[in-house]
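pls ignore typos typing on phone
EPZ + seq
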Amino acid sequence: MYYQINGGKKLFGEVTIGGAKNCLLPLLAVSTAIGGKVVLHDCPPMMDVLNMVALLKKLGAKVCYQDNVATIDAKDLAYFKVDRQLGGKLRGSVLFLGALLGRFKRATVPIRGGCAIGKRPIDIHISAFKKLGVEVEEGDFEVVCNAENAKGGNVCLPYPSVGATENLLSFAVLTKGRTILENVAIEPEVIALERFLVQAGAKIQGIGTNKLIVDGVKTLNSVEFRPIPDRIETATYMVACCMAQGKITLHNVCPQHVECLTKILKGATVDFCKNNLSLECHQKIKGFQVETAPYPRFATDMQSLALSLSTVAKGQSKVVEKVFENRFFNCGELAKMGAKITLSGDFATILGVDRLQGATVKCKDLRSGAGLVLAGLNAVGTTKVLDVFHVERGYCNLVKNLNLLGGEIVEIDD
Ligand code: EPZ
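k done
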């Protein structure tokens, strides 16, 4: 399937942002650690979520998924081995490790999967688990762990990895004794997981900070939870409006989660009222500089969006990628659309052009795909964005919503 975009249409109207993919994936994984029922509201059926649900079912969990509500009952979980073929399709599958090990003391998970944006090793996860006494056998495609002799301890992460924090926390809450986790990630999705676990009966101190003190409990109980709004989806519509121009209102947003982006939108008016954001843009955004880093600095998942925006910003911009080593694929694709980008190692220097030109371009990963859709909204003429299955891993209703706002974009089966 590809998207065909007829660029140059201004955007006006309203969109409601859904639950965050990167919040839902760890919540779905950690459901396996819970003896009771888990009810997740606002769970949009994007491809990564559907695959996590399929993995849960393969593990033996009962899942009812209707009207964006997922109810998971993992009481009688049958397997501790995550399906290698399906799990290999998404990075989220590695998040089953901590949850399964915590509850059953055994787990096998695939170690490949997810967007091709870098090597994405799991060495930080593994060395931390080993430090807590977990026996680990690493194969080429999966890792087999045994936590029969594991207990609490002190771990300081060499880098605040989001996935490692989520995995270790999911393990520590059900592991005997006290575990102190230092230099952990403080991304909003991680904090949501901390709150979810506390609601399920976990004992965690230091919520929202980079040091967590966890006292293991024997079991976790039923919990009903709503994920945080998707900050990357929010950012996508914000940048769309800046590139196509117009006036939009986004409902169900968390203003501080998109502050790193709001700061660089010089030339647009952004207003917040409770959980609503309105953005108006009738001129070019001023050239800007961003450097990706862990939260609250500029999010790597917004980098491709910023790169697209910079191609039509006024003057020069600089985009530096410090989190993943392979997230500049779009430079070549955007150049096909007339963008003036010079790539040197981990940074790109961009000289804004008046408008991009329609072309046929290809997605390589989820966020680069979203960046190309935004470029197409700006471009003169028709843009074909190929391989959009990448985009559909993490966006629900992107095409529908952009059309509702007045963009002209159609999905075409090839
Ligand atoms: C999560 O990936 C997100 N995925 C990513 O979103 C996001 O880009 C990333 O966090 C950073 O914010 C999910 O939540 C499912 P990391 P994760 O561990 O957990 C290196 C999207 O588009 N590292 O914080 O994999 C790693 O290679 C996706 O929605 C190690 O070297 O990110 C990377 O360079 C893509 N060893 C950096 O740390 C490790 O053991 C950050 O990775 C772990 C990570």
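Residues 21-225 form a domain with the UDP-n-acetylglucosamine1-carboxyvinyl-transferase; Chain fold (CATH 3.65.10.10). The pocket of EPZ is lined by residues 22, 25, 91-92, 115, 117-125, 159, 161-164, 187, 300-301, 323-324, 366-367, 394 (CB under 6 Å). more later
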